[in-house]
């Protein structure tokens, strides 16, 4: 799908938050870029924010990619969760229900005229680099798609660049625990599931707390989802154990919740053995262990992208392939404030494509990446945590803005986000009831704390 106008044609894979953000900025630069083409597997925008009661397969017999659960509220205040150029409605509380985020993304989509550029129910089967001396830069991309429902023919279109925005909260990571196969059961549909002794599930399939009433549950993993689900289940389960390898949580926990070390192995009778020798025999063992990166449409032989221990290489600035600098993987960094992070990555990507930022040579990028990798490893950062930016995200976002020559995030973004992390660590049970107010690029305050 090449343009005769000299403008660049960009394909965007996914119409979740990152894909919508990519389309918004491409549409704002129609002097350089043709209107984008977005390929979305489902029939809705919003990605993981589209709640689906079913697990496994949806009403169209497509895989359920969303990991949203019914009562989820955001763990980031709306004041810093929003795209910088499109705030949430002021009347909303700071921590909003997931339905409000989905509504927000639909409003964003319509406000910027994105919907007409989305091809729904399109499965991206392959994204292949094509070298052509007739094109500037010598590289284009063949994107082959098919109807996600299995109807219709495959089509292949050609693009100057590809932005991969397919998300990474849908392919559950199952840790290699000895004896894990001793849990036989699985949930086929959460609303009709009969939970019985020896039930193994991943938090990807968690939807509501009611089926766990009176059950003993061990949750493996103390990330944000694990702690959120712990709080929900504490209201109905007979016993909840939070198993993890982090330092013990020191904040108040729900009544009846206990902490345990990581799970070392599982005996044949379904008994869990923790690292310190403690044991438990729960009705339900739920893995809150995160997700794998998966890019099935990118050929390992042709593109050479490697995914190992939750790390994706080679990617310059965690974003673009040095051998194929018109291929961008948006939003694979972890422990970030996602929407503004997408906002910064995408504008930097456009500065690469429009030539306002000149990339180093492939060799220079590869050398810089190797130095950065070795520096992280020598500091003691495990390979699986290389993409975990956390507080380093702010310097990263500022660097994107400096190199891409666009307006950086206001200072309050970092300060409020980091303060919320402290409040969450100290007041896990109540922090979502805090209400924030932003006065300027530098000033904000907490208007209300404590329980509802």
From TrEMBL:
Keyword Flavoprotein in record: yes
Cofactors demanded by this protein: FAD
GO molecular function, one term: flavin adenine dinucleotide binding
InterPro entries: FAD/NAD-bd_sf, Flavin_mOase, Flavin_mOase-like, FMO-like
Keywords, alphabetical: FAD, Flavoprotein, Monooxygenase, NADP, Oxidoreductase
Keyword rRNA-binding: no
A Pfam family the protein falls into: FMO-like
UniProt family annotation: Belongs to the FMO family.
Protein name: GSXL5 monooxygenase
């Amino acid at each position: 799908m090449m343009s005769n106008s000299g403008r660049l044609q960009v394909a965007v894979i996914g119409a979740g938050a990152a894909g919508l953000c990519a389309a918004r900025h491409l549409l704002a630069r129609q002097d350089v870029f043709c209107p984008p083409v977005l390929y979305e597997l489902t029939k809705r925008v919003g990605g993981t924010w589209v709640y689906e009661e079913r697990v496994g397969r949806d009403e169209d017999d497509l895989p359920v990619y969303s990991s949203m659960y019914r009562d989820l509220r955001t763990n980031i205040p709306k004041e810093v969760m929003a795209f910088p150029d499109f705030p949430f409605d002021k009347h909303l509380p700071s921590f909003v229900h997931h339905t409000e985020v989905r509504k927000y993304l639909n409003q964003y989509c319509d406000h910027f005229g994105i919907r007409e550029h989305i091809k729904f129910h399109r499965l991206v089967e392959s994204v292949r680099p094509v070298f052509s001396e007739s094109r500037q830069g010598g590289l284009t991309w063949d994107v082959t798609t098919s109807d996600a429902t299995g109807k219709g023919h495959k089509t292949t279109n050609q693009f100057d660049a590809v932005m991969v925005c397919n998300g990474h909260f849908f392919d559950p990571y199952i840790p290699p625990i000895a004896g894990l196969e001793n849990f036989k059961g699985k949930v086929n549909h959460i609303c009709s599931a009969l939970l019985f002794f020896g039930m193994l599930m991943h938090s990807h399939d968690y939807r509501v707390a009611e089926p766990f009433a009176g059950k003993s549950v061990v949750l493996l993993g103390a990330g944000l989802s694990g702690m959120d689900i712990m709080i929900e289940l504490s209201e109905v389960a007979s016993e909840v154990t939070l198993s993890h390898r982090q330092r013990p949580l020191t904040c108040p926990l729900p009544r009846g919740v206990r902490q345990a070390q990581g799970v070392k192995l599982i005996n044949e009778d379904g008994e869990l053995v923790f690292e310190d020798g403690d044991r438990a025999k729960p009705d339900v063992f739920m893995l809150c262990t995160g997700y794998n990166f998966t890019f099935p449409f990118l050929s390992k032989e042709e593109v050479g992208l490697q995914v190992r221990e939750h790390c994706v290489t080679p990617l310059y600035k965690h974003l673009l392939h040095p051998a194929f600098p018109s291929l961008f993987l948006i939003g694979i960094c972890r422990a970030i404030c996602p929407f503004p992070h997408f906002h910064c990555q995408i504008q930097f990507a456009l500065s690469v494509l429009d030539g306002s930022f000149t990339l180093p040579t492939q060799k220079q990028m590869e050398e810089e990446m190797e130095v950065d990798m070795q520096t992280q490893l020598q500091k003691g950062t495990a390979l699986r945590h290389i993409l975990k930016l956390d507080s380093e995200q702010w310097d990263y976002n500022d660097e994107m803005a400096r190199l891409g020559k666009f307006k950086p995030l206001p200072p309050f973004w970092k300060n409020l986000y980091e303060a919320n992390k402290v409040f969450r660590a100290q007041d896990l049970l109540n922090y979502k009831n805090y209400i924030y107010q932003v006065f300027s690029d530098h000033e904000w305050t907490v208007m209300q704390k404590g329980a509802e």
